[in-house]
Amino acid sequence: MPDSNVLPTMTGRPNDLEAFWMPFTANRAFKAAPRMFESAEGMYYRTTDGRQVLDAVAGLWCVNAGHGRRQIVEAIQAEAGKLDYASVFQMGHPLAFEAATKVAAMAPDGFDHVFFANSGSEAVDTALKIALAYHRVKGDAARTRLIGRERGYHGVGFGGISVGGMSNNRKHFATAMLPGVDHLRHTHDLEHNAYSKGQPAWGAHLADDLERLVALHDPSTIAAVIVEPVAGSTGVLVPPQGYLQKLRQICDKYGILLIFDEVITGFGRLGASFASEYFGVKPDMFTAAKGITNGSVPMGAVVTKGFLYDAFMSAAPEGAIELFHGYTYSAHPLAAAACVATLDLYRSDDLFARAASITGYFEEAVHSLRGHKHVIDIRNLGLIGGIELEPRAGKPGTRAFDVFLKCFEKGVNIRTTGDVVALSPPLIIEKSHIDQIVGTIAEALAEVA
Ligand SMILES: Cc1ncc(COP(=O)(O)O)c(C=O)c1O
Question: How much is the pTM?
Answer without folding.
Answer: 0.96
